[in-house]
Write a structure and sequence with these properties.
Blueprint (H helix, E strand, L loop, with lengths): L1 E10 L7 E11 L3 E6 L6 H8 L7 E6 L2 E3 L4 H11 E4 L11 H12 L4 H14 L15 H14 L4 E5 L7 H15 L3 E6 L2 H7 L2 E6 L2 E7 L5 E4 L5 E2 L4 E7 L2 E7 L8 E6 L2 E6 L16 E2 L6 E4 L14 H5 L8 H9 L9 H24 L4 H4 L6 E8 L8 H10 L3 E5 L3 E6 L11 E11 L7 E5 L7 E5 H9 L1 H4 L6 H4 L3 E5 L4 H6 L4 E8 L4 E4 L1 H7 L11 E6 L2 H10 L2 E5 L2 H15 L1 H27 L2 H9 L4 H38 L2 E2 L2 E2 L5 H26 L4 H7 L3
Parallel strand pairs: 3-8, 3-9, 6-7, 7-8, 12-17, 22-27, 24-26
Antiparallel strand pairs: 1-2, 1-4, 4-5, 9-10, 11-18, 13-14, 15-16, 19-28, 19-29, 20-28, 21-22, 21-25, 23-26, 24-27, 25-26, 30-31
Helix pairs in contact: 3-4, 3-5, 4-5, 5-6, 9-22, 10-20, 10-22, 10-23, 20-23, 21-24, 22-23
This protein binds adenosine-5'-diphosphate and magnesium ion (MG).
Magnesium ion binds next to helix 1.
Amino acid sequence: MIKITGLNKYYNKGTRNENHVINDFSYTFNDQGLYVLFGPSGSGKTTLLNVIGSLDNFDSGEIVFEDRTFNKYIPRKADDLRNEMIGFIFQNYNLIDSMSVSENIGIVLDMIGITDKDEQKKRIDDCLSAVGLYKHRKRSVLALSGGERQRVAIARALAKNPKVILADEPTGNLDSNNTFEVMNIIKRISQERLVILVSHEKDLVDFYADQIIEIKDGKMVSDYKNSLSSELKHKDTRNIYLQDYKNELKEVDNIKLNTYSDGTNSDLTFDVIYKNNEIYIKAKSTGKIHYIDNNSEIKLLDASEKEFHKKQAEFKSDFSFESFNNEKDTKKKKGFTSIFKSIKNGFKEQSFIKHSKFASRALVIAAVIFAFMITNLSAIFDFKESDYAFAPNNVVEVQMTLKDSSNNKTFDEIYNLSLTDERIESLQEGGVTISANFSKFYQSSVFGFSSISNVFLAKKTPSLNYKLTVGREINDKYEVLISNFVADMLIDSPGAKSNGITSYQDLIGEEITMNNYSRYEYSNTNTKKYKIVGIVNNKSKSVVLSSDDFNEVVDPTKFNTYSDRCYISTSDREAVKELVENMGYSSVFYSQENARSTFISQRISDQATRIISLSIMTIGIVIYLILLIRSSMFQKIKEIGIMRSVGARRFDMVSIYSGEMFAITTKTSIIGFSIAYLIIFYYNTRFSLDGFGFNIVSTGLITYLVGVLLIYLINIISSIIPILFLMHKTPIEIIKKYDI
Ligand code: ADP
Ligand code: MG
């Protein structure tokens, strides 16, 4: 039951064009019967039907649908009502052209939550049989005639098993035969359900309606039970039967003019211009000009229109809603279209987002650029522990910059402290550069010289913790242990590999030299060779020396007084830290975590320009994509209106579009990205794309996966944003605005 009280709607309210299109309409519809809203064109019938069907909003009044009351248009409530209660049949069918007959119905079933395959198939087949289109179920709707399309639209409305069917001039575009067929089906439905039909065709209304509600200028002017006329004499309002017109042939020079007239013409004057085999026509009389060719809806028939007679007894249709499985009906979830189905549709190219070659290429190109950007960005964060590890964990790092700059302390004070305080085991300025020459054992075209800078010298003291993993302890003078990080770096150097140094074991017995290039005199004098006897793990980039060797190499009296920091090894870090801080220096415990965070912030500030420019480019691409997707979507916007009208809730639209965008992205962006990524990966591993000691690109699996994920996210979000904006409009606003 639908009860409407005091319904009012205006177009252009408050302006000079104000149109009171529904004027205080009140009515109660029962649960069955064919109610016809009858009235001349422009009287407000369509608007009234749309408002009843919650396709359009209203200004005041109340609409009660069983237990739901609407005092104003609430989009979410309206969505639910359309979805759960209403089947719509439109004058111009409003089918989705990119889908087959069955799919047009299936998508509505998805939306109302009937996702069970068997029940779907049964409903689709039953409804298509009822309208005589079962054999065309797999065809594209574009391949159907007008009458067939309207019957698909009826089947679509029936399949929902709706409480109410609303039909707006459903036969307006059909010829007499099809009109009769379609109206018979509608009449049959009305014996089980409430059907509200809009029509301006008197003969049809008299033949079919149970109740006639006459509308004029937005007002109900009469309402009466129809005494069904026993005979239908229907006129074809669409096609032109030439033999019913007065024909005259006029010949002037070589020009033949064949005129057909129903006698209503007054003065007809045309300018006809021939130029380069093309014809230009200008009519000087009033009246609309229709151009007719083979594709026109209107046909010129060389015949006289036959009277179309039908008797009441000729209704026939076996359709009944009883065959639907209502158990499945009541179990329906809050309807939502399966995202997987949407992905499938996207792959089948039956999509709502227009696939243009241009858009696909743009998606591919954007993804290729994105591949360069993400490998570039990821290079900034691509580093190993050995890149920032330096000293072992028994070290206090002292910042030589004083807290108080007026207080003139120097390195000497720390040095003096180290001589007197027993807790200080060693003191040094910074890292050294170690070098190894692997060339002596192997014939190789590649010079086997490897050099590693900024290596920490660790004095072998009780507080130095390490684990010997390969080789043996230091037994003799000029023997050293190297940390695994140093060992890895030596092995990774090009000189090592080509000279047969490929494992930790290979390094045992090799010799290194140590230099501090920042101190001129030291680099000149120290050419001592130290033999690697073992490899240790002490989480630092260090070389471990015996006490004697350490004291020989690290001579604090030759320290560079301009150093900005120094390192103290100690068994009691807490105490030493406090001590130097009390002297006015700032200091930190040396640790992996500290080193790591310092390293990262340094790296980011070094690379700030690169990060900023890459980010701006990324944002640019994203904005471009949003605009691109938006514009391809707007070419198909009417279909969004259709989907909304037949029951799609907001979430359905989001689900449909993200599913499709997922498929499109996979076919375009992801393929483009993957190919570009592979090429970058190939060149990076072959030629190690390196700029100023820094990787230009980094091509790990994680970077690839993050890239793929980001592309899906960017594309899907870009496609949902315009949809969400569109959802603010009522379905009828969407359809009307973009009806082409
Ligand atoms: P009918 O279906 O009876 O032909 P409509 O409901 O389509 O009538 O239109 C009723 C009146 O409202 C007409 O005068 C029409 O021009 C006007 N109208 C319809 N839609 C709009 C709109 N979106 N904005 C302004 N006026 C409209
Ligand atoms: Mg209308």
